[in-house]
C-alpha cells in the first residue's frame, strides 16, 4: 500500500493543527512573556525575583514533562475530559512565555543605560521612557531571535502528540501505521514542517532589513 | 536674587570610595560655572548629583527651589527645570533629529505636534542645524549630534543647563562648533554648569571657575584664576593638562 491523496490530506490537516497550536503558543506566550520581561527589569526586587523564579522553573523542565503535567494535572484538579489541544495549548504557552521573556529581557537590557538616563533627564515618566525610547529600539533587536524562536515553537508542537493531539508529526505516525512506509511518510512530514518554517525565517530576514532603515 | 543652584557640604561614596567629600558652591542666575579637575576628582559626580542622577549621602542640594537631597524629591519637576547634555550625546537613534527634540515637549508638556515641530525648528536654528531636522542622528557628525543634544535640552526651556564634558569625545575642529553654541547660550543669560577640560573656554566664558581635587572644591575664582593659580594642586593640574 502506498501514499494516497487521502493520506496526504490527513497529514495536511495535521499541518493545520500544528499551525494553530503554534499560533496559540506564540500569542499566549507573547502576552505572558512580555509581562514577564517587564517584570524581570522592574524596579521592585520582589517582582523581579518572582518572574525569575517562574522562568527558571519552566526553563528547567523538559517541555515533554510540562505537557504531561498539564494533561494529567488539569485532570487532577477536576478539569478532566479536556480536549488534548487545551492541555497542549496551556503547556506550550507556559513554555514559550518563559523563553520569550528571557529573549526580550535581553533585548530590553541591550539598549544602553544612557538611553534610559537621557530620557529620564527629559522628564519622561518611566512608562514614556519604556514605550517611546526603549521599546522601539529593543523591538528591532528582538525581531530576529523572536521569529527564530517561533520556528522552535512550530517544531516543538510535535511533542503535543504525547497527550494524544493529532498534529503534523502524529498524523504522519498514524499514516505510517497503515501503510508502513516510514521513509516516504516522514519525508513528506519533514517537507510540511519546512514549508511552515521557511517563510518564517525569510520573514525574519526581511523584517530585519526593513527595520534597519535609517539606523545601523 | 537667590542662587539657582546651591550645594552645601555634599558627601557621596560609591562603596568604599569617597567621591565627594564635603562639596559646597553656589551658582547665581545667569552665571556660567566651569568645573575643572583631574579624572576622579568628583566633578562629573557632582554634576550628576545636581540632576538627581545620583543620590547624595549627606549634605544639601537646592536647584531652582527643588530640594534635591530630599528623598521625597519630585524628580520629574526637577528635570523640567534642568537640562543636561552628556559626553556621549545620547540621542535616540530610532528618531529623527526633529523627533528627538519634539519627544519631551509632546510627552511632558502635552504640546501639539505642529507646535512642537515649530519649536524644534527654532531650537535647531539656534544651534545652526535647521537643515538637519529630518536626518537620523547617525547621519550627523559628532559635533552636529552634540548640538542636537543641546537643542533637545533647550526645547524644554530649562532654567539651568548642565554640560558633562560635552566636547571630550570630539576632535578639535568639531569642539569649536559646540563651544560656540555654548558661548551663545551663556551670552543669552542661561545659567550653566559645565564640567570641562577646555581651559581656554573656561577662562573666556566662565564667570566662575571651580577646581575640584580629591572630592573637594580646592580653589575657586574668576576665569583669570587659571592664569594665577593659588594652590600647588591647581598649578600642577594646569601644567600637566596644557
From TrEMBL, chain A:
Q: Residue ranges of the ABC transmembrane type-1 domain?
A: 15-204
Principal location? membrane
Q: Which domain of life is it from?
A: Bacteria
| TM annotation in the entry | 6-39, 51-72, 84-104, 183-201
| Membrane topology designation | Multi-pass membrane protein
Q: Matching Pfam families, A to Z?
A: BPD_transp_1 (PF00528)
CDD domains listed in its UniProt record: TM_PBP2 (cd06261)
Provide this UniProt record's keywords sorted from A to Z.
Cell membrane, Membrane, Transmembrane, Transmembrane helix, Transport
Q: Where in the cell is it found?
A: Cell inner membrane; Cell membrane
* Membership in a protein family: Belongs to the binding-protein-dependent transport system permease family. HisMQ subfamily.
Name of the protein described by the UniProt record:
Amino acid ABC transporter permease
Q: Which organism is it from?
A: Shinella pollutisoli
Automatic annotation (TrEMBL), chain B:
Domain of life (superkingdom): Bacteria
Keywords, alphabetical: Amino-acid transport, ATP-binding, Cell membrane, Membrane, Nucleotide-binding, Transport
Which InterPro entries has this protein been placed in? Answer: AAA+_ATPase, ABC_ATPase_HisP-typ, ABC_transporter-like_ATP-bd, ABC_transporter-like_CS, MetN_ABC_transporter-like, P-loop_NTPase
Record GO terms (molecular function): ATP binding
Chain ranges of the ABC transporter domain: 5-239
Tell me one Pfam family matched here: ABC_tran
Q: Please state where this protein is localized.
A: Cell membrane
Q: What is its main location?
A: membrane
Q: What membrane topology is given?
A: Peripheral membrane protein
| Classification via CDD domains | ABC_HisP_GlnQ
Family per UniProt? Belongs to the ABC transporter superfamily.
| Name under which the protein is recorded | Amino acid ABC transporter ATP-binding protein
Organism annotation: Shinella pollutisoli
Amino acid at each position: 500500500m502506498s501514499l494516497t491523496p487521502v493520506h496526504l490530506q490527513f497529514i495536511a490537516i495535521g499541518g493545520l493543527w500544528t499551525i494553530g497550536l503554534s499560533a496559540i503558543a506564540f500569542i499566549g506566550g507573547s502576552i505572558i512573556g512580555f509581562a514577564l520581561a517587564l517584570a524581570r527589569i522592574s524596579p521592585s526586587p520582589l517582582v523581579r525575583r518572582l518572574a525569575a523564579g517562574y522562568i527558571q522553573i519552566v526553563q528547567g523542565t523538559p517541555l515533554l514533562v510540562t505537557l504531561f503535567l498539564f494533561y494529567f494535572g488539569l485532570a487532577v484538579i477536576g478539569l478532566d475530559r479536556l480536549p488534548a489541544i487545551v492541555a497542549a495549548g496551556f503547556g506550550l504557552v507556559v513554555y514559550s512565555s518563559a523563553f520569550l521573556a528571557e529573549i526580550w529581557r535581553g533585548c530590553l537590557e541591550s539598549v544602553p543605560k544612557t538611553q534610559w538616563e537621557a530620557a529620564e533627564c527629559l522628564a519622561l515618566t518611566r512608562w514614556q521612557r519604556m514605550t517611546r525610547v526603549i521599546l522601539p529600539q529593543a523591538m528591532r533587536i528582538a525581531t530576529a531571535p523572536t521569529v527564530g524562536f517561533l520556528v522552535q515553537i512550530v517544531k516543538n508542537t510535535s511533542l503535543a502528540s504525547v497527550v494524544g493531539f493529532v498534529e503534523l508529526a502524529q498524523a504522519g505516525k498514524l499514516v505510517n501505521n497503515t501503510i508502513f512506509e516510514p521513509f516516504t511518510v516522514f519525508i513528506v512530514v519533514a517537507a510540511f514542517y519546512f514549508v511552515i518554517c521557511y517563510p518564517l525565517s525569510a520573514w525574519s530576514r526581511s523584517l530585519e532589513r526593513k527595520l534597519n532603515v535609517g539606523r545601523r | 536674587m537667590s542662587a539657582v543652584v546651591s550645594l552645601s557640604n555634599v558627601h557621596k561614596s560609591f562603596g568604599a570610595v569617597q567621591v565627594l567629600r564635603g562639596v559646597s558652591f553656589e551658582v547665581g542666575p545667569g552665571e556660567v560655572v566651569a568645573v575643572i579637575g583631574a579624572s576622579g576628582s568628583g566633578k562629573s559626580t557632582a554634576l550628576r548629583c545636581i540632576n538627581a542622577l545620583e543620590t547624595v549621602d549627606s549634605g544639601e542640594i537646592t536647584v531652582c527651589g527643588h530640594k534635591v537631597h530630599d528623598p521625597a524629591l519630585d524628580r520629574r519637576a526637577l528635570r523640567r527645570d534642568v537640562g543636561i547634555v552628556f559626553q556621549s550625546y545620547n540621542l535616540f537613534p530610532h528618531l529623527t533629529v526633529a523627533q528627538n527634540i519634539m519627544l519631551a515637549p509632546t510627552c511632558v508638556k502635552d504640546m501639539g505636534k505642529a507646535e512642537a515641530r515649530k519649536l524644534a525648528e527654532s531650537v535647531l536654528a539656534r544651534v545652526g542645524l535647521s537643515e538637519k531636522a529630518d536626518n537620523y542622528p547617525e547621519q550627523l557628525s559628532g559635533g552636529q549630534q552634540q548640538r542636537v543634544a543641546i537643542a533637545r535640552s533647550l526645547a524644554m526651556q530649562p532654567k539651568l543647563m548642565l554640560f558633562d564634558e560635552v566636547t571630550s569625545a570630539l576632535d578639535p575642529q568639531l569642539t569649536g562648533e559646540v563651544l560656540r553654541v555654548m558661548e551663545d547660550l551663556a551670552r543669552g543669560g542661561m545659567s550653566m554648569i559645565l564640567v570641562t577640560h577646555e581651559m581656554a573656554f573656561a577662562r573666556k566664558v566662565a564667570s566662575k571657575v571651580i577646581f575640584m581635587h580629591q572630592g573637594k572644591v580646592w580653589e575657586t575664582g574668576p576665569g583669570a584664576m587659571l592664569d594665577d593659580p593659588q594652590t600647588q594642586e591647581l598649578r600642577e593640574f594646569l601644567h600637566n593638562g596644557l
